[in-house]
Fold this protein.
Amino acid sequence: MSISGGGSRGSGASGGAFGPRQFQLVLLRRMADFQQGLVEDALRELDSGRAEMREANRRWQAMLRSPRGRGAAARYRSVLGPPEDTARRRTGDLDCDAQTWRLPLWPDLRFEVLSVRGGGPVWNEWLVRAPDAPAPPLRTVDDLTPWSCTVDEAARAFAPARPLEGSAPTRWGLTFSAPDAAGQRQRVVAEFSWGLLQRLPDVRPLPDADATA
């Protein structure tokens, strides 16, 4: 993690501007459900605390529920400013607009918003690896540490991975097989928040027939 231009404590007070700093606190609020220690470290880097994090999340939820609120894509532009990059992407049967923003707290990642091309609805919003940042080496279960990788990186490294329904809109799950340090294959369930790995709630040896398939 690295902070630059994060702002000072109290800049997220009720009624003040809601910008990249406050949005990072929103992401941290969801991640605190899994990784309180890492979130505390991030809050210190932001010179912030749990009260400001809760207030940022309250204001974000109010924006989402407001009947006069902006559409999702416009809301992100309002909060994060112009995207660092925009691209056209084909995903399945959909032509999508991909917009990405830099967040100081995660310099090797970008926040990506995918929307149906031509001003259509947003259907995905998560953290992805920055184009110029090296992907983490993911070879064994031991490499899957909290905040080490994104959903798509884990899915590629341990293909075929099967998506699991998350317990909240900003949560994703994957299940796949991966070797442990001794080379024994394990059935792994991985949980992600805002696209970033949070924990492995279930790791167990594969039955012999599946392990050798």
